[in-house]
Amino acid sequence: xxxxxxxxxxxxxxxxxAVLTIIFLIVRILPGxxxxxxxxxxxDAGAVAAMRTxxxxxxxxxxxxxxxxxxxxxxxWGVSLxxxxxxxxxxxxxxxxxxxxxxxxLLIGAAIGIPLGIWAAVNRNLFTDYAIRIxxxxxxxxxxxxxxxxxxxxxxxxxxxxxxxxxxxATWTQWLQSLVLPAVNLGLIMAAYITxxxxxxxxxxxxxxxxxxxxxxxxxxxxxxxxxxxRNALIPIITIVGLYLxxxxxxxxxxxxxxxxxxxxxxxxxxxxxRDYTMLQGMMVIYTLLVVAINLATDVxxxxxxxxxxxx
Amino acid sequence: MIRRTLLAGxxxxxxxxxxxxxxxxxxxxxxxxxxxxxxxVLDPHMxxxxxxxxxxxxIFNGLVRLKPGEISPEFIEPDLAESWTASPDGKVWxxxxxxxxxxxxxxxxxxxxxxxxxxxxxxxxxTSTFSSDYAAFESVEAPxxxxxxxxxxxxxxxxxGVVMNxxxxxxxxxxxVEQMGNEAFRRRPIGTGPFAFAEYVPQQYGKLVANDLYFxxxxxxxxxxxxxxxxxxxxxxxxxxxxxxxxxxRQDQTAFSRLKATPGVKALAMNPAEMSVIHLNMTMPPxxxxxxxxxxxxxxxxxxxxxxxxxxxxxxxxxxxxSGYVGTLANAPLLPHNVQKARELLAEAGFPNGITLKTxxxxxxxxxxFMEAVQAQLRRAGITLEITPVEHATFHQQIRQNxxxxxxxxxxxxxxxxxxxxxxxxxxxxxxxxxxVTNFSHCKVADAEIDxxxxxxxxxxxxxxxxxxxxxxxxxxxxxxxxxxxQLWAIKDSLDLGYEIKGALNLGPAVLETSKFTK
Amino acid sequence: xxxxxxARPRSGFARVASATLRAFNTNKTSWVGLALFLxxxxxxxxxxxxxxxxxxxQDIFSKLQGPSATHWLGTDYYGRxxxxxxxxxxxxxxxxxxxxxxxxxxxxxxxxxxxxxxGGRFDTITMQVMDILLAFPSLILGLxxxxxxxxxxxxxxIAIALTSIPSFARIARAPTISVKEREFVEAGRSLGYSDxxxxxxxxxxxxxxxxxxxxxxxxASSIRTEASLAFIGLGLKPPTxxxxxMIREGFENILESYWLAMMPGLAIxxxxxxxxxxxxxxxxxxxxxxxxEQ
Lengths: 312, 519, 294
Prior knowledge:
The complex is a heterotrimer of chains A (312), B (519) and C (294). With 312 residues, chain A is an all-alpha fold. Helix content of chain A is 79%, strand content 0%. Chain A has 12 helices and no strands. Chain C starts with a helix and ends in an 8-residue tail after the last helix.
């Protein structure tokens, strides 16, 4: 187990290093000049050159790279080229928004998806099953920005249940109001996904011998489904949903744009538009860290939860 | 159709209840919607973009200021300076400062020393985008605590224009920069205006609080929040829902008409207008042939573009300097719309089958819609315009690298002809050179006139020189001015800003100490 | 030789063909998916002949009109006919979706097969790279790639393909590992066949079915990613009509004319839904155990 962990950690480190290098290069290949963006369209070429010097962008690429790497190792990702605030501070200021959105979307998704998935599995090939499967496919087919726009028109404009710009969060109700529409938008997509995963995991478990045995012993159907089958189906559900988090974060970019909600996605799109090199680097490193961590955790959880999985 | 009516009905109802609900209590907080995810760097000497300027203008004063709501230099009035004098040759200027003005957040009294520091900072390339505005400055001194003396190497078109509450003329407090350093100052700008900087949350909002020590009196509003909402639709929706009191509207006639027809809303079309100019790079064939350039000018239909953009929100361009600036040639010999003539000229130039031109263009929606309309007009004259859309940052870099045959640039400048002419049509400003600014066409026919006008002390002669420069540039067809788009904002009817809003040089209506809600 | 030949299972194509028939027999929704998709495909192919108007001809005097007899779905901001733009837009959505997925399918399958076949350190490193690519939000990856390369048809195809290569690699790798242990591969190896021959003649046919099924599902996803990129502003050159670009324009006009965003939104929904229905049904037929999983 320890050897396994050490090996996985080693790989994670090598991966991170490679990714850091690629990120550094990509960011510098991008056309566009941060100095020009900062100074605006009235600056002359000389002023832009002076700004490049001030930002340290005129140094040799290798020097910049060494600087970036040593900074990254020390956990210092520099300051945003545009706003002058530390990258880490900017990221931390929006991270709670993204985590909150992702978490509640996951909750909504699980609350809708797991019961629906079970219901469909239990009624396999009956009308309910087909209806749920088609509905969930439809949910998966919705581009996040289209569903977001529809929710916005319906609930914020016509019904006025929620504010259009979800930013005020001084009171408990304001906080709830600012969260509901974006979380529901992402949550519905998540629900469609979880429904399908749950259904297939349940079908698999329900066909196992011990379930049949339990049935044969006269354990009530309800108890078999909820107590025995679901518990065993949960492991694959959690694993696959964990892998899906990356997709969820991607969808959250669109959701954040439509609902004008702060978050990692909007931060990275903004940094991209402004060619904020340091910010882009920091953001990509964080994404990579998240990904590597999730993969590592998934592996470990899977290994611990299911002794049948060999830890190579 | 029925659904449409229903939707409109629902929205109207929603809007009415929204505004009624808001109006019950007289608010002392103001919420403004800006069209950006970021205000940019919070340094008045660096930021030249709309969101940053409209946010920061409340924080700073100039030695002089433009009367609120006006944009022409003839409306200059005292600000931090109570009075000023100029030597007869226009080279020595003396300003007498108001006494007892306090910097925000207890950074002490604003004195001549601060003004000198601020102007010198604005004139330094490392700390200012606008340093070239101060190229003619020989010295800035503080003979005593309340006197500022500026000595120029040569007279310039508008000295007051560079010491007023605009760009580098915005006065910052020396103690603040010295104590915090430039980097920290940019996160917490300190000035003397009616509102002081409170906080800035990326992607969300910037907040200002009342400066109760303001020299013109205690502001009515306690707090102003500038919400950062890049999407036009989301901002518009938020305004309709009553969550914003004032917003940078969608720059479009249809949206403007709807806002105008909405009860309880005042829609504003303000100067300065941003002029859309099609610059033709004369070093790149076939644009080195004047017949081709003339053909393009004939192919463009200014009236059609104005119709497309909207009669209330845009004007037809009159010259290569926007209308209403000091020195604009109101009847420049622009070529009229004539598709037949355009085709003939192309044939004469040796392109009977038409030409294909390439342009690199920003994806910003407002500018792109204009260019697509231009593209369609050129198509009718046999001119194919290939638009390569790139993001705004890439656009700004690549058009300065001579990568685009045709450059669409949309801008407003300080309303004196010299600025537009020097930045866009003087050979010094040619892109690619070390002194390059935004001369994309490589135009150089009017250098002599532009330079002569700069230091011409006789106003009438100066204007005659500017007129001659424009005549030459238009005849050479370095660039084709097409349309001027006004700045569109909307405010709630109940919001009284305290002045008549005709324009806003800082690209957003200024909130004054006297601004308040009337209901 | 004879051993390898007899032990070789039916080819992947035959399996897909029979599975498709089975799918269509047992799963009526597959028919619906196929029919919807074919309708869109035909419209896309015939667009130049059946579109009522020129999709890029502007008419500023009739801009932002609601549905009418001349313009069935109304006009856009430039007075262009929305129905015609939708029809032409189908071409770009399908070209990008199919080309990007095909590219990803080929590249991903080769990578996955090689990783699965050779195993060891090569496998671990390759799959680690794939994992990172896979879990990186594809939209953000696409954004950065398109910003780097510029938004041309080819570049958008490359960007979307890069985001889906890892999925195909994963799909190809697992069956390769299980197949390579089977007797007929062992036999082939003992007969001295080259790796390439074993991979392409013996292993490839066994994983074709799974990969082809994934093709329809990932085409759906590619079409959605293309629309998302265009929505954010990194779409094809104007005046090219693309669905995502139309939604972007429509979103800015949403208060005046909601149908501008609604129509292309529905178009995307229909195509993606059709492909999902189709792929879902096919997968059920090929591997009933996987039924309903994505």
